[in-house]
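Re: the request from the purification team.
They wanted to know what the chain is likely to look like in 3D before they choose a buffer screen. I agreed to run a prediction and write the result into the notebook, where they can find it.
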Amino acid sequence: MKFTDGYWLTRPGITPLYAVDVDDIRVDEAAGTMTVYAPTAHIRHRGDTLNRPMLTLTFSAPREGVIRVRVQRHAGAVHRGPDFATFAEESFRPQVAVDEAAGVLTAGDLRVRVERGGSWRFAFEQLDADGGSTVLTTSLPRSVGHMTGSPDADRSGSGGGGPRTWVHQQLSIEPGERVYGLGERFGAFVKNGQVVESWNADGGTSSEQAYKSVPFYLTSRGYGVFVDDPSNVSFEVGSEVNSRVQFSTEGETLDYYVIAGPTPKDVLRRYTALTGRPARVPAWSFGLWLTTSFTASYDEATVNEFVDGMAERDIPLSVFHFDCFWMREYQWTDFTWDERAFPDPAGQLSRLHERGLHVSAWINPYIAQRSALFAEAAEKGYLLRRTDGGVWQWDMWQAGMGLVDFTNPEATEWYVEHLARLMDQGVDTFKTDFGERIPAEGVAWHDGSDPVRMHNYYPRLYNAAVFRALEKHRGAGEAVLFARSATAGCQQFPVHWGGDCDSTFASMAESLRGGLSLALSGFGYWSHDIGGFEGTPDPAVFKRWLAFGLLSSHSRLHGSDSVRVPWAFDEEAVDVARRFTKLKLTLMPYLAAVAEQAHEGTPMMRPMVLEFPGDRSGFDADGQYMLGDALLVAPVFTETGAVEYYLPEGDWTSLLDGSVAAGRRWLAETHGFDSVPLRVRPGTVLPIGARDDRPDYDWADGVTLTCFELADGHDGVTTVPGFDGAAPTTFRVRREGAEIIASSEDARAGWALRAGDRIARADGAEEIRITVAQGARERAGEHA
């Protein structure tokens, strides 16, 4: 929310109080806290302490490199929750020192210094190994504030409503500093100049609304800020004060964390350690998913026709998804197959499993009044109630639907029991749709939660319940969702997809921007509807989207009222689908290692700033990404194949045609439908798998280590993760002059080394040598 009218004035109906001075700093050594008492006017004499509001700031540190700040005016308000779960290091305690000049709290390589005397100021500093420090961001005068709205003030400063209060913090941003994240945002990737409201909504991908609001931002200076509040946190990113990020929440308390780097990857690793790491997902989930589409008519015969059609056209398929109408209309969700279309669901699912497929089923957290489960859920108190005691209902989506109250443990257990029945039938995973349209007024949750705070928090309860049920049934590492709604911490329950996008090139690009923003919000995996959801894509859109989708973390063909099987478009679409599906499957030895990095806090799909934080030319590059640390992908958003993208420093090789392009520049190219800018980072040893028919295979068996622009003296280790519990296989690759030498002490089967057009093979743990061919190389940008 904006509180000011330009630089000098406040908006009508708003009364501000700002921390202007430090009266006292107190230390609680046992708790590891430093508390600052800040009057809201300069105290000239003892009389000024009377009738004078004061703000209290409490600094603490739950982990190394993370400092928590609590800003309060009145501390006695009732707190109803819910709260984000955060994970502290139990044995960690910060260092606190206070003298006449300042109070300093140090948490490993991050410290905050609160100055005494003079103008209001405290600064967060990154410490380096040599004892030096860099100021990351600063709280300056008029940056810590408590705002009161008059009885007729609303969030814009005018209109109806009762008295309201807000607390805000402003943190400085430097010239050229970029701000990213704040959830899955489909507008401009760089958030500078924007107003962002953290309020989940089912608004598609073409507006300022978001399915996944995350009150966390990361900047190009290598630090992050997480506002610990699931209610509507309003961010003004250089849009109220041009040189500051302001964030505010309604009430009397504001909690936030500053998270150190020094690199953006370090920030994300620390942020996900604080709020929860992305879980490991099963290998089969990286293959191609095909769905029935939403309202397109289908039955068991249609499903078999789709599966047979993919097999006949040699397009490997890993997952088949049954969308909404596997259940009967008006009865969502009742967890019961529509017997008119699926008379033998257990038998059909068994037959799909026999063909090597996994099965996904659509669900949501709503119970329609016509569902046989509605009366039971209402009677037992499993549905959200209004404040008058009646069940909350509306007719949007399904007639008379109620909302499962996951704050009630018995309701959660009841819901999970129905999922278990489906899993026993053969369902392997669930698409957890919806979770955004959660009422924030006039309702009473079972555990007494604040409805405003529960609006964004609900997806965490919903997705956690389903994910944990899958984990219980399948085991850790074998659970995976396809989830739409999320907030902070939901990265623990992957995978998430980008919501309802149009079938256009513009929507394809906005989907990517959403995915890049989500990646910088702590989410390790991400997907989207190949071809777009709404409408029927032009064949050119579909074919361009295939390359993008199959070079994403997870890949799903899905639409609304029309099917997305490739032959519904043209024969070239079949060829493109086959080419990129098989390409992705051969990349599994590499992608499996990248997925392990996602589990440790670094996303699989990475904006350029995350992988190249020292290269300013990539800070705004929102039409491309790194898939892991070695592969650069630039989706083509035009029918003609024209595409522009940025290459960082070095000689980058096309994985598709072998051409080489010098970096530190923007390239303009034209690509056919069977091509896309897919370049390999110089100095990479890329493991290529021996199979292209499925994602879940022994990735080390027959692997080829493919070398790209290895410098003389290169000496590195390439690790291929073990599949299905096997130990990883490690290879050492070095270059000595014109020779590349590879060896392994634990290779269990045949493997190969490739450099350019030369290839050498070994059986087991042998050493391979290749003499590097010298000569001219084709330059990229000259091919069609």
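For the purification team: Residues 4-80+90-274 form a domain with the Immunoglobulin-like fold (CATH 2.60.40.1760).
Please add any questions underneath this entry.
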